[in-house]
Design brief:
Isochorismatase-like_dom; hydrolase activity; six-stranded parallel beta sheet; alpha/beta; Isochorismatase-like_hydrls; Isochorismatase-like_sf; Isochorismatase hydrolase; 7 helices; Rossmann fold; single chain
Length: about 190
């Protein structure tokens, strides 16, 4: 399903566009993802809509077959990309799990702001974005995915999320489509 509308109170949620994550090899150029996410953030701010910037500063405990970090990361790893131009009005969320809702104040903040829909962007498509989207869907939020403002460490995982998972959770569109929809619904 293509992007059809944005709710009157839609928030942008940008996942893990931080120094340590952006430096990793990704399926699509991370610089382009950051540029698209920054354009979305600027537009949401201009329209007086909430912008949530999420970083990850640890990992959930537990066993897994693939090695993954579970402790705290070095400070520079968690620094948000300067292109996002963080503002005092932005809501910052630091997570220690894949999804941005678990053990954070994200749901409370969105409810307090009257948000009924979120637009998701960031890295990584199949982990942080998909986990956040699944939880948002279960909580009853409408979801839009800015598909060119996200990427993954693995192309096959990215493609699976975009083609099989996201259409079941919400609507997809490009950054340009989201920006046009913002202008159209806010005119």
């Amino acid at each position: 399903m293509a992007l059809t509308t944005l709710d009157a109170k839609t928030a942008l949620v940008v996942i893990d566009l931080q120094q340590g994550i952006v430096a990793m090899p990704t399926a699509h150029p991370a610089a382009q993802v950051v540029t698209h996410a920054a354009a979305l953030a600027e537009a949401f701010r201009r329209h007086g809509l909430p912008v949530v910037l999420v970083n990850v500063a640890g990992g959930a405990p537990g066993r897994a077959e693939q090695a993954r970090p579970t402790g705290n990361f070095p400070p520079e790893f968690t620094d948000l990309m300067p292109e996002l131009n963080p503002q005092a009005s932005d809501h910052l969320v630091t997570k220690r799990t894949w999804g941005a809702f678990t053990n954070t104040d994200l749901e409370a903040y969105l409810r307090e702001q009257g948000v009924t829909q979120i637009v998701l962007a960031g890295i990584s498509t199949s982990i942080g974005i998909e986990s956040t989207a699944r939880f948002a869907h279960e909580l009853g939020f409408n979801i839009a995915f800015a598909v060119d403002a996200m990427t993954d460490l693995h192309l096959d995982a990215h493609t699976n999320s975009l083609t099989r998972i996201f259409p079941r959770l919400g609507e997809t569109g490009t950054t340009q489509q989201v920006l046009a929809m913002l202008e159209q619904t806010r005119a």
